[in-house]
Amino acid sequence: MKFAVLDFETTGTQSADDIIQVGLAIIDHDNSISRVYGSYVNPGRPIPPFITGLTGITDDDVKDAPALEEMMMELVPMLDDVVLVGHNVAFDFNFLQNALDRCGYLPFTGRILDTMDFLKIMFPSLSSYQLGFVSSEFGLTHDRPHQADSDALATAEVFLKCLDELHALPLITIQRLSDLFAEEDSDLGWFLDGVRENKEHDPIQDLEGHQFFRQLALKVEDWTELAAPRREDDPNPLAGVSFEEYMDDVRDNLRSSLSQYEEREAQTQMIEGVNQALSEDKHLLIEAGTGTGKSLGYLLPSLYHSVKNGQRVMVSTHTINLQEQLRERDIPMLTKVIPFPFRAAIFKGRGHYLCLRKFEHKINRRDFATPKEDLITAAQMIVWLTLTETGDDEELNLSNRGGDFWETVASDSESCLGRSCPWFRKCFYHRARHEAGIADVVITNHSKLFTDVKASHQLLPSYEHLVIDEAHHLEEVAGKHLGMHMKYFTLVHTLTRLFKDSKNGQLPSLRQQLAKSGHEKSTDWASTIDQMYPLVLEVKETWDLLSDKLFGMLPERSDATPGETGQFSSRLKPSAKPAKWDQAAALENQVYVTLSEILRKGDKLMLDVKEEHDDYAADSLITDITGLLKDLAGIRESLRFFMRMDDETTVYWLEASGQFRSKSLQFYAVPVDVSRQLKEMFFDKKRSIILTSATLSVDKSFQYMTDQLGLQEAADQGRLMTTQLPSPFNYRDQVLLVIPRDFPSVKGSVGDEHFVDMLVSSLGATAQATRGRMLVLFTSYRMLRQVYEPLKEALASSDITVLGQGVDSGSRSKLTRRFQEAKASVLLGTSSFWEGVDIPGKALTCLAIVRLPFQPPNHPLLEAKSELLQQQKKNPFMKLSVPQAVIRFKQGFGRLVRTASDHGVVIVYDTRVIESYYGKHFLYSLPGPKMEHMPTEQMVPRIAEWLQSAPETEA
C-alpha cells in the first residue's frame, strides 16, 4: 500500500480561494518516506495579509512560481494508485478536486484517510491534535509550521507513528475497532479491516501486559488485587520517630534527588504549622503565596500524621486540575523522598469514571446518537482501555459531542448493579473507592466533599482530619451544593435517554428485548412503553414553554461576556414575584403532573419486568431505566422547590446566555449564609481542618474568612490558629506597582469617551515599552469591547497583536496559549482571567488592572447577603464587598510573579486605591511590591526604566 500525504496552503478556506503552496510526502510499501515534493503556486492575485501572517508566504515568494496548471502536471502523476492522507484531510481534498476540475483532469477516486481520526483513536489522551503540538509531543522536528512541504512531512511522520501504535494493539482490540466501523461504508473501516486481517495471520500474539475480559483488552487487573501500602503485621515505620527526625530524612532525600532543591522559610513554617494543627486537633487558616510550595507544605505533615497514628487525612482541592497536578507531579516526587511505602489516592465524583457495563452495552447495541462522531469516540475509548489505569475521563480528549457520549457511559449510583455486575471486579469507580479506603491520604475535591455530606457520608472513606486547598472557594462551592442548581438540559438529557424517539432510547430498546423474549406479558409491557412516549413528548413541550417564559423574564447584564452563562440574570424574590409568574407556575404544575404519571407507569413496569423476566441484557437496561426514573423524580422535586420560592433563607435566581437563550437557562437556589452549615458539618465534627490558599487575609487579618466560613466559635474557644506566611519572592525588587493619580474615574460598567481614549492611549504606549507581554484585566466585558478595536488599531503598526476574551474565539486556555506563543501580544481578559491563569517567565511582564474587582452590587447572592448584613446592623460594603474585592484583587495581582526570577510591572488604573477611604485595604493586602503614584505622562518612562534595571532582561 502506498500513501501520499498532501497539504495545501491557500488564500482562504472557501472554494473560490486559491492554492499558494503544495506539499506532498510519499510513503512507500515498506513504510519509508521516499519523496517530499514542494512548490509555491502563483495564485494570480495578492495574498491576504492575514494569510501572510499565518504562513509567512508573501507575494514575492509566489511571483515567479508556476501557475496552477503547471504545478498540477507535476502533482497528478504522483497521485496514481495511492491512498490519500491529510491532517483534516477534507480541506485539502476539497481544494484538490477543485484544482483537478479546473485543470481538466478526472476527479480523484481513491481511498482517503485523515490523520486526525488516527490520532484521536490511537492517542486518546493527547491534550491537542494540532499538528505543531503533536509533532513536538512526539519529538519530531517540524521546522516550518504552516508551510506545505514541512506540514506534509510532519503529517507523514505522525501518520507512521499512528500506524506503529495501531499494529502494537492486542488483536482483540483491533477486532473490536474493525467491527465498530464494519457497518459504515468508510475508508477508515476498510483500512482497519485490512489491519485486522494481517494481525489475524500473525502466528505470535502478545498476550502479556493486558487483561482480556468479555471481548475487551484492559490495562488493569481486578481491583481486589490492590494491596494496602504496608502489611498489617509489619511494625509501624514511624514508631518512635519524631516529626523532626522524619523531616530530616525527607530533606536529605530531597537534596539528593533534586539538584535544585533549596529550603524555603515559608514552606518550613507551613510544614510545622500544619503538623501542629493536626497533632493538637486544631483548625488552621494559613495563607501561602505563590512559590511557597504549599502542596508539599501540607502533604508531608499529613502523611506523617496519617501513618504514625493510623488516621487517614483527606485533602480537598477546588479544581480537578489541581488534583491532576498532585497526581502527576507531587505524589511521584513524594514516593521518592518519603522513607517508607505509603499510598495517596485520588478520588473524584462518580461521573468521572467509566462504567464498563454501560460501555459494553452501548457498543454492542451500536446505540449512537451522532454516528460519525460517536464511532470515533467509541474507538478512542476501546483503545484507551488498553492504556488507562483509572478509567477517569480527565485522561480523554473528547470532541465536542464526546461529552454527550460520556454522559451515557459514566458511572452513577442509580444504575449500579454492585456485586451482581459481571464487571464488578474490573470497575473503575470501585477501584478508586477501594484505593481511597486503603490509602493514607485521599485527595478529593470540594464538590465531592459536599456530595458526600449530602449522601450522609456514604461516598468518601471516613476521616477526622481535612486539608482544604484553594479554600477561598469553599463558601461558593458549599452554597451550590447545599442549595440547588439545575440546567435546561438536566431534564432534557434524562428524557432523551429514556426516549430519543419512538424507536430509539432505553425504553424502546427494552421494548425490543421483551418482544424477542416471547414472554406472555410482553404485549402488555410493550403497550405500557408505547403509552409513555406521548407523555414524554408532552413534558418536553411544556418544559420548552416554561423555559421560554422564564427566559423572557431575564434582563441582560451589561458587564458579562456574550455567551457567558451570566449574561442574562435575574434574582427572584418570594415577596415580589415577576408579572407573569402565575403562568410559569401553571406550566411547572403541568410538568409535575405529567412527570408523576410517567414515573407511576415506569416504576410499576420495572417492578413487574424484574419479577417476571430473567435475562442479563434486559437486567442491564432495567437498572439503567430505574436510575433514569429516579433522576426524573429528583428533577421534578428540585423544580417544584425552585418554583415555590418559599424559603426565606434561600436566594433564588436564573441565569442564561444570549447565544442559546432559553436552552442555556440555569436555576439556582442557594442558602444566603452557609457559615452555620459549614460550622455544623465540618468545624464542629472534625478534629482538625487546615484551610489554605494564596488569598485568605484582608488587611493582614483573617476576620473576613473566619466570619464567612463559620469559624468564629472555634476562634473563641482557642481552637483556631491563623498564619500568614512570608513570601518566598522579593516583591520589592521584582514588582513595581504604578498608579496614574490623574487618571479619570468611571462609574458603572461602561467607560465614557474621555476615559476610553485615555486608557487606550496609556495601554498602547505601555505595550510598546514592554513589547507586548501584557495582560489587561477588566471587570466588565462591555469595557473590554470598548477598548479592543481602538487598541488593536493603535498597535497595528508596532506588530503587537491584541487578543480579547469573548472577541477572539477560543477558551481561556487557548487564548493563554496563543498569548504565550506570540512574539508580542496584549491579552484582554475579564472575570475568568483574574485567577488560575499561569504565565511564568518573560511571556508576561506587565499586568494592568483597569478597575477594582467589585462584584456587581445587583448580583443575586451579593444582594441577598447585603440585605442580611443590614438586618444585623452591619455595613455590607465594608463587611462584604470590600473584602471580596480585595481577595479577587490579590488573585489578579498574583498572575504577574510566578517564579523567583519574574520581574515586571503592575498598573492600577483605578485611582480609588489612593483616593477612597477603603483603598488602603487593597494596597495593604499585597505582599509588598514597590508602589509609586505619578501623573499618567510620567508612567511609561518610569516603566521603561524599571524594566531596564531588571536582572539580565532583554527589555
UniProtKB/TrEMBL annotation:
Binding site for ATP: A288, G289, T290, G291, T292, G293, K294, S295
GO biological process, one term: DNA replication
CDD domains: DEDDh (cd06127)
Entry keyword Ribonucleoprotein: no
Domain called Helicase ATP-binding: residue spans: 253-517
SUPFAM superfamilies on file: P-loop containing nucleoside triphosphate hydrolases, Ribonuclease H-like
Molecular function GO terms recorded: 3'-5' exonuclease activity; 5'-3' DNA helicase activity; ATP binding; ATP hydrolysis activity; DNA binding; DNA-directed DNA polymerase activity
Source taxon at top rank: Bacteria
SMART domains in the record: DEXDc, EXOIII, HELICc2
InterPro entries, sorted: ATP-dep_Helicase_C (IPR006555), DEAD/DEAH_box_helicase_dom (IPR011545), DinG (IPR006310), DinG/Rad3-like (IPR045028), DnaQ (IPR006054), Helic_SF1/SF2_ATP-bd_DinG/Rad3 (IPR014013), Helicase_ATP-bd (IPR014001), P-loop_NTPase (IPR027417)
Chain span(s) of sequence motif DEAH box: 469-472
Enzyme Commission code: 3.1.-.-
Reaction catalysis annotation: ATP + H2O = ADP + phosphate + H(+)
PANTHER family according to UniProt: DNA REPAIR DEAD HELICASE RAD3/XP-D SUBFAMILY MEMBER, REGULATOR OF TELOMERE ELONGATION HELICASE 1
Function: 3'-5' exonuclease.
Protein name: 3'-5' exonuclease DinG
